[in-house]
């Protein structure tokens, strides 16, 4: 369990932030590339299933949650448990940041023989297997964990015993341990207590069993692969070696890890650790220390430098403490006011040139308070530091409740907000704290092994981020601004900034972040800071870009946004805590003249049917046939039917499988019914799902192939429409224009403020929701309709 969050918090934070965080630090830009997980945006879990629950099924659940790596913890700290986990990870397209007892907890040595290509040997009650081994030249050691590699069943009712002797003559017994079947893992691990050994000395280990049938085969080398000893069968020396891994704890190290300010890991240990894992296809990197104190940074740097020399292709991972408001414990664990401030702590680690910088901060408190001060202070500081040092930023995401640490289980919108606000500050990876439950706290996997509701929360949000990932990983943060209340040390959106909220409805509190990719292409992420309410929000873009497209969270492709290039107005619906990523272009796409259109009225009430209209724009010739493919969000809506809106145009076939996709084959009935110019052609009817929370779903045209009189085919540009589905049952909620769940004077005021406007008004797209009877104008009938609803 991470030691956190009940500790005292950092004082004088305001002072050093105010006087300038850039002074007094040594900048050393990282030369390490952005880490990915097999090309995906990194999404990890902390506190994995324990070794007893490491299986294909449990790891398949992690991958099905759309996570792609594991930060090894929870007893996954020995070669035997880690090797078994790496097999399960490889089977399920996961990676692991591996760790070890000798890194994570106790200063240790590692003795091993890793070759397993020889003929297997079997253990039986009349056949013993042995191996001599040489201890490292280190003092104060004891054999503790000892594992072998086998295949085949280890049945129930059988036992195997490992005994360690001073020599093959077996005159002195050093230690012993027994395992009872069944053993599922291919890496049976013995736990030996009190087996003290001398440095640079040869010892003998021997396996015996009560089984009358063969156990194994146990893996061996083809020849004498291990210079420190050899294998034995029934006491007779062999020309090869058993595969084995041995952990020997030593005295030394720090309070919480094998590192201390004056001592780090031996070269022999690091070589054994890295060489054992570096060729494993499921390896992401090496998890060294969680929340280290700053006084061990020099020894951590020595170790990471040695790891890089041995394995330059995998990352070394260290996660730092989060900001604390009134304490200085970061240097030695005590309130060291000279060295212990947070600025020194973070800068000190960045000066070691880490592969990434990672922190954990959990803002949702059990008293129902969102700790926005700490949340944004930490994000502001880490964003600035990661940019200054050119080092990627990762963060932990709260996914559990903890009575001890005063954390509440987050809602879906809270979890969504924490992820999207972190992405808006430039994060290039995140880790859930925690996945498996430790103790009595409820994590993503509950104490009884079942999935918490947070599992599906994470699964759905992760799927969105994976689709956005290619774009996100290419971006560099340029600006981050706030509206709707500006947290301490954050910056308000300037009134002169090119991106401004607009419209007549209640303004959404938001984060507005600008990014650029390596080609200078400009992106903007907008995050709804309201974790309770959905919003329909418009934006005025004073730069009037020729094109604004949204990076789709369902496909990862750039899709047409609700943007008017003439007026510079962009509109979108935001679920509570949701973020959207837009890309701005000075030049319109080549296919912009010929494009599809899709329109509809949003929001709609949960459980109600609604229609959208699909058409074409910019057709210069005549179109006689269309093959249109659409995607929609089946979690938010279900498809009902399609019908033609034009005489002489027929929907010949509607293909509805698989769920979430549509294909429409449309044809004209004769030469007099070709499509030209701009026309709406087909009406699609959907039914909004009955939801307990307001949500938005996108209907997008992924492709449209058009045929002319000569059989020539042309592609029309795609388009999309975001539909907001408001919760609260299937009853009619017409008149709730400001989407606050009721019809009241606030809605009446919006109609009154826009009285007299019609479909020719330049801001009609932003105000047409006040046209309740959909007659193309806002008049006395709309005022009367809202007044009737208020009086009901």
From TrEMBL:
Q: Where is the signal peptide?
A: 1-29
InterPro entries given in the database record: CBM2/CBM3_carb-bd_dom_sf, Cohesin_dom, Dockerin_1_rpt, Dockerin_dom, Dockerin_dom_sf, EF_Hand_1_Ca_BS, GH
List, alphabetically, the Gene3D superfamilies matched.
2.60.40.680, Dockerin domain, Glycosidases
Q: Where is the Dockerin domain?
A: 730-792
The residue stretches assigned to a coiled coil in this entry are: none
Q: Does the keyword Signal apply?
A: yes
- Protein name per its UniProtKB record: Dockerin domain-containing protein
């Amino acid at each position: 369990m991470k030691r956190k969050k009940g500790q005292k918090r950092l004082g004088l934070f305001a002072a050093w932030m105010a006087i300038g965080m850039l002074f007094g630090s040594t900048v050393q830009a990282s030369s390490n590339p952005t880490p990915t997980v097999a090309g995906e945006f990194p999404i990890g879990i902390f506190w994995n299933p324990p070794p007893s629950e490491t299986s294909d099924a449990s790891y398949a659940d992690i991958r099905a949650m759309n996570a792609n790596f594991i930060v090894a913890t929870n007893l996954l700290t020995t070669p035997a448990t880690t090797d078994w986990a790496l097999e399960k990870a490889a089977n399920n397209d996961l990676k692991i940041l591996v760790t070890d007892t000798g890194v994570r907890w106790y200063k240790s040595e590692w003795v091993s023989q890793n070759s397993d290509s020889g003929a297997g040997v079997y253990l039986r009650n009349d056949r013993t297997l042995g191996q001599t081994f040489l201890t490292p030249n280190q003092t104060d050691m004891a054999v503790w964990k000892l594992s072998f590699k086998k295949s085949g069943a280890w049945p129930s009712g059988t036992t195997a015993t490992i005994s360690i002797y001073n020599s093959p003559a077996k005159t002195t017994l050093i230690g012993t341990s027994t395992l009872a079947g069944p053993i599922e893992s291919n890496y049976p691990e013995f736990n030996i207590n009190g087996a003290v050994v001398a440095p640079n000395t040869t010892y003998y280990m021997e396996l015996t069993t009560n089984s009358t049938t063969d156990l194994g085969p146990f893996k061996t080398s083809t020849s004498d692969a291990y210079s420190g000893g050899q294998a034995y069968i029934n006491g007779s020396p062999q020309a090869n070696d058993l595969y084995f891994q041995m952990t020997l704890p030593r005295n030394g190290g720090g309070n919480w890890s094998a590192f201390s300010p004056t001592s780090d890991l031996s070269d022999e240990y690091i070589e054994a650790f890295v060489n054992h894992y570096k060729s494993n296809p499921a390896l992401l990197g090496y998890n060294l220390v969680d929340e280290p104190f700053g006084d061990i940074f020099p020894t951590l740097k020595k170790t990471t430098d040695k790891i890089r020399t041995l394995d330059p292709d995998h990352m070394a991972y260290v996660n730092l403490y989060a900001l604390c408001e009134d304490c200085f414990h970061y240097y030695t664990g005590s309130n060291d006011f000279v060295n212990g401030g947070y600025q020194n702590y973070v800068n000190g680690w960045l000066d070691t040139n880490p592969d990434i910088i990672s922190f954990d901060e959990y803002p949702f408190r059990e008293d129902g308070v969102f700790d926005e001060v700490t949340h944004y202070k930490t994000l502001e500081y880490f964003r600035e530091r990661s940019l200054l040092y050119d080092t990627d930023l990762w963060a932990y995401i709260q996914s559990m409740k903890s009575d001890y640490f005063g954390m509440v289980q987050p809602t879906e919108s809270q979890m969504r907000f924490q992820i999207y606000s972190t992405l808006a500050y430039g994060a290039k990876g995140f880790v859930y704290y925690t996945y498996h439950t430790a103790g009595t706290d409820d994590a993503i996997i509950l104490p009884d092994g079942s999935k918490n509701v947070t599992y599906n929360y994470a699964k759905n949000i992760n799927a969105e981020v994976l689709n956005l990932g290619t774009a996100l990983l290419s971006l560099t943060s340029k600006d981050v601004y706030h509206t709707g209340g500006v947290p301490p040390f954050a910056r308000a959106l300037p009134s002169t900034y090119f991106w401004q909220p607009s419209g007549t409805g209640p303004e959404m509190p938001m984060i507005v972040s600008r990014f650029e990719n390596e080609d200078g292409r400009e992106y903007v992420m907008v995050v709804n800071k309201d974790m309770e309410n959905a919003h329909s929000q418009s934006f005025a873009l004073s730069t009037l870009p020729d094109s604004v497209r949204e990076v789709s969270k369902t496909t990862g492709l750039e899709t047409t946004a609700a943007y008017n290039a003439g007026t510079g107005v962009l509109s979108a619906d935001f679920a509570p805590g949701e973020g959207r990523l837009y890309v701005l272009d000075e030049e319109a796409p080549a296919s912009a003249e010929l494009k599809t259109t899709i329109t509809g009225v949003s929001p709609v009430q949960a459980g109600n049917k609604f229609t959208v209209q699909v058409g074409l724009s910019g057709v210069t010739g005549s179109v006689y046939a269309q093959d249109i493919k659409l995607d929609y969000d089946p979690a938010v809506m279900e498809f009902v039917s399609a019908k033609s809106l034009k005489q002489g145009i027929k929907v010949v076939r509607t293909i509805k499988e698989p769920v979430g996709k549509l294909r429409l084959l449309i044809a004209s009935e004769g030469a007099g019914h070709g499509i030209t110019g701009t026309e709406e052609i087909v009406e699609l009817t959907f039914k909004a799902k009955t939801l307990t929370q307001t949500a938005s779903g996108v209907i997008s045209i992924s492709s449209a192939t058009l045929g002319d009189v000569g059989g020539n085919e042309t592609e029309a540009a795609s388009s999309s429409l975001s539909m907001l589905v408001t919760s609260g049952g299937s009853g009619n909620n017409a008149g709730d224009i400001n989407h606050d769940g009721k019809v009241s004077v606030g809605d009446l005021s919006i109609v009154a403020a826009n009285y007299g406007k019609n479909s020719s008004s330049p801001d009609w797209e932003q105000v047409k929701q006040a046209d309740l009877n959909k007659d193309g104008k806002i008049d006395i009938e709309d005022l009367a309709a809202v007044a009737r609803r208020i009086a009901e």
